Amino acid sequence: PLYSSAASDVYKRQHCATLKELEEIQDELLTSEQRSRLAKARKHEAAAIAQRRSYRDARASLTSDDVMIVQDFTYHDYVQLGYQDLVVVFIWKDKHGDEHTTTRHYIANQGDKNDVLFSIHAWEKLAADPRVAGKNVFVWSDNGPKHFKCTAYITYMMMWAWRHAKRSKRGLRLSFFAPYHGASVADRGAAVVKRRVADRIASQSLRMKTNEALIQLANTVLG
Predict the structure, then answer these.
(1) If DSSP codes are grouped into helix, strand and coil, which group holds residue 112?
(2) Alpha-carbon separation of residue 70 from 34, 123, 128, 136 (angstroms)
(3) In terms of C-beta density within 10 A (0-12 exposed, 13-18 middle, 19 or more buried), how is residue 149 classed?
(4) Is residue 160 within 8 Å of 125, Cβ to Cβ?
(5) What is the pTM for the complete model shown?
(6) Helix H segments across the chain?
(7) Which residues contact 161 (CB under 8 A, 6 or more apart)?
(8) Which of 43, 59, 65, 179 is most deeply packed, by most CB within 10 A?
(9) H or E segment at 179?
(10) pLDDT tens, 190-210?
């Protein structure tokens, strides 16, 4: 992700199909290049399985002292005007152990890129969200090299964790899904908004000239 979820799915099918394709070839018939590709595909599959299991275990182990944040970028493209959107899903449990989720969208100005500065700016706002106050924060991201899995972002998150510990006496853990096996829970949250907004735009021939207009329409169609 992001790239786009569609591009992700294409790559994932191709990459994971490589494993199945090569495993069907008898070992003694594999070329050295095929052996190298097979080793990489097996490593990729193992990482995807391990990280998915780790995510499920972390989510199941949440207590009322914790909040999990799953984040991913999507892109709103309506009538030649497009806006980047950082989708942030909050997952937590109440004192009875019941799980709850809610989603926030940080929508950029026209022309803003989904780069590391966008991510940092959103997290400066996210720091004030009451859902993270006094909680251990478990963050899951995709491997986006320009906005999540890069030195600048990880350095910033180390500082964010330090400030959070000073404020709340709580910790932060940053985890990444395996490449191209990212945050489906965030994808679903984005899909709901995009589908409902697109339907309203089409039915009323609307034009989203500003991100404020998009936000207002999204809030309207989502009630």
Answers:
(1) coil
(2) 35, 13, 17, 14
(3) middle
(4) no
(5) 0.78
(6) 5-23, 32-60, 116-126, 151-168, 184-204, 211-221
(7) 171, 172
(8) 179
(9) none
(10) 888 888 888 988 888 888 888
